[in-house]
Fold this protein.
Amino acid sequence: MSSLLRLYLSAGWPAQEASCDWILLDGSGHQLQRGRSEPRHWPEAEACEAVLSVEQCLLLNIQLPKASKSRLGEVIRFAVEDHLLGDAEAEHFVPGDKDADGMAPVWVIARARLKTLLAALNSLSRIPQRVFCEIQLLPLADDHWSICLRETSPGDGEPVRIMGFARTGVEQGFAFESADPSAMDSPPLELQLALQAAAVSGKAPRAITLYLAPGSAVDGAAIAASWQDALHVPVQAAGEFAWQEQVRAANEARNLLTQEFAPPRRPQEGWGPFRLAGYLALANCVIFALFVLGDWAWLSYQSKNLQRQMTTTFHSAFPQIQALVDPPLQMQRLYDQQRREQGQLGSGDFLPLLAGSTEVAIGQGKLDKIAYEDGRLELSFIVANTKIAESLRDTMKGRGLSVTLRETLPVKSGGKGVEAVYALRGTP
């Protein structure tokens, strides 16, 4: 059963901090291990994924015009330029699905940051198949928004700050930060503006669920009560948010590894699931080919053996004949020649050919014309239909005659039936 190592990478990894949180899952998504350690202590796994802290990604919701796949990147860069402080060429964009109004989520991450992460993980032989933002792991209920608060320490001697992020839709959300934990008694400005915009569009949430990061010392219940009074929207404290528990949400999250950052194909992808079936089909083809070749070789051996036997028999019966091309035909002709020398008829003479052909036609048709020349007899029968004409031909062949049904013609003068013309020889 395959295993998956899912890493949580902060903005300071790997330059400022070497350790990170991780979780090890089996092929069914069940947790096997979890911990926090440096890469040398990460458990072995067949696959790897990375969860990025929210400040490393920007999530926009913008109007995207229709564009071909080849021009989509150019269209997105043009559409998001007004939302970025720096050069759009320095960013990697991953669009989501459009809604009915043509609005689409667009994930933005710095190319340099993504290259640094992938280079560091590749050097550790931990090639990630997926990379996604933690905002997609925050639980989300219908007509509810979810918010998570986390304490951060920018550096030694600097005060603790509160940062948070909100998930307002499947692929909608934003991050915010407060310089002073005491300022959290008032809702952040980003949240207030988002609620006002949602109210104008008729998409205001019925309630807001507030989560805290593990180990946080802030009072979630007090913050929820003060925000509710200020926002006039129910705010519910829901305890801690642990990204490790959101296995299903992680499986459904938007992968940021697209275009030039797309991961190499894994053996389980593409034709991987059909590999065993392919091997079995190939083995069957090889066995069938060997069987056909073996059968052909055996039939070829038997044919050559019969040819040798006919040659031996021919030379023993006619030792004076040295040139041998077709033993059965030559033997038949020599046999007919000797019969004629003894005053007997050969198989290609007129009477044997006529007797053998007309006998089978008794009750099937009427003999109309006869012509004979140089061992070749041509007969014309009047029969009821073409099927009977073909049946007569097959019966003559069964009698050892070499026969060809030359043509079938409608009977002239308005008669019924068809005229079947046969050409016969006594020797095959």
User: Anything to note?
Assistant: The mean pLDDT is 83. The radius of gyration is 45 Å. The chain is about 30% helix and 30% strand. The longest helix spans residues 275-317.
